Structures are given as C-alpha cells and as structure tokens.
Amino acid sequence: MLSLVLLLAATASAQIPSLGWCxxxxxxxxxxxxRFLGTWYESERYxxxxxxxxxCVKIKYDSTPEGRILVSNEITNSLTGLxxxxxxxxxxxxxxxxxxxxIKYTALPGTYDNEFSILDTDYDNYAVMWSCSGIxxxxxxxxxxxxxxxxxxxxxLQSAYSALERFRISRTFFVRTNQADCNVLPEIAADxxxxxxxxxxxxxxxxxxxxxxxxxxxxxxxxxxxxxPIVRSAIPEISDEPMKMQEIEIMEKKEEKIEKPVEMKNxxxxxxxxxxxxxxxxxxxxxP
Length: 288
Hints:
The structure is a single chain. Helix content is 28%, strand content 31%. A hairpin with a 4-residue loop joins β7 (110-121) and β8. It is α+β, with helices and mostly antiparallel strands. The radius of gyration is 53 Å and the shape is rod-shaped.
C-alpha cells in the first residue's frame, strides 16, 4: 500500500509515465561527493507539475562537521515572487564510489525519500541527475541538468547534452528553467554593515530586483595642519650686512677726501696772507 501511495505521488509530480521497468542506467563510477558539494543551478529538467510556474531554482549541498550532507532547494514563484525552501539530508547508497544517493526531504506533515543517480559530471560546470520510480509495468522518470553558473554558456550545455545522448535519454520533454531576473542583491546592498554612510535601495515589486538608487556620502578629507616644507636653494646666500658696511666705509673716505682739500686751502691762504704782511712791513722799514 505504501509503495502504491509513493507511485501515485510520483505520477502526480511528473507527466512522463512509461510502460515497463525502470531503465538500468548505471550511475557515475568513482564519484567524488566532496567535489560535488556546493551550489548548483537548475538549467533544464523534465516537466513536472510540482515545479510548474517556478523559476530561479537553486540547490545547495553542504557538509557538517559530523559528516552529514544537508540539501537545500530554493524555488521562486514566477507569479508572486515568493521563495519556497525545501530542506533535507543526503546519504550515499549502493556500491562504494557510485554516484547513487538517497535524499530525505523534510516537509510538513511528514517526510519523503527520493533516490537519485548522478549519471555524469565534471564537478566544475555541469551535472546530469536522473531518477526513476515505478511499480510493475509502469514507471516514472525525471532528469535534471545542473550547472554551476546561473546562466551557463552553450559549451557547458553541449557537454550535458552529450551525456544524455550516451544514456539515450530523450530531450523531448525537457523544459528550460527561467534563471533571469532573479532576486540577487548587489554586494553593496547585501552587506550594509560594511558601509559608513546611509544607503537607499528601492526594490521593483513586480520584478523583485533592485533598482540602482544608491547614494553614498563622500567623506571630506581634513586639511593637513602641517606647514609646507621650506625649500632652500643650494646656492649659498650672501648677507646684506657686509655690503652695507662696505658702503658706509666708502662714503666716509669720500667725505674725508672732500674735507681735506678745503682745510689745506684755508691753511695756504693764511700762510700767504702772513707772508704778504711781512713783505709790507719790510717795505715800510726800507722807506726813508
């Protein structure tokens, strides 16, 4: 009875039922789960009712110190823009080194398990995930193309398509996941604690992405109070004081030269007058 309930749940979530048993697709050998950890984006998938009207699907695999692997699926509703988080835990099953895993999702009111296989991955660009469940002659298949980039280049998708062809998985029922206009805030708005000023970010309610309206006050640098350095010439400076002293001495000498001739002239005149007076006295004596 429990198996029938699980089959009905799988049939309700997927629209690709097939007759016969599940194909015997061997999962990837030498699978390195540590390299597989991290963030993956859903690029393409089989059509499922549960993901109808969803976009920006992101899956994250994290390991804990206890050795557990936690799974977190983030899905955004295309109509409302609201996000839905589906969490669970992952455990490797099957033979050692196989890319076969069991993911137990926690959802109210109970939990449910899904078995997945990693058919191919290069760990750095793409991964092809597949699952199949069925009872008797009816089975349901699901397949996903996961990429490390939200919008991968064509060469990465070509590598994933090649893996699908090797397993003869038809791409007829694949639909592309809308990864455009996802609500990804820029770093400057995602971590406002790193900013010193006030930041204003407006969000477009329809598209749920930020509109550039960031104003960051620019701090004015304080003017330096240190006086500018004094630039000195390499040529030695000549003081004006010795020049002034030399000029004063030259002026004094000129004054002395001017005064001396006048004094000598006066003395010569006096001597001349005295000689003339003596001469006149002599003439007076000689007169009878």
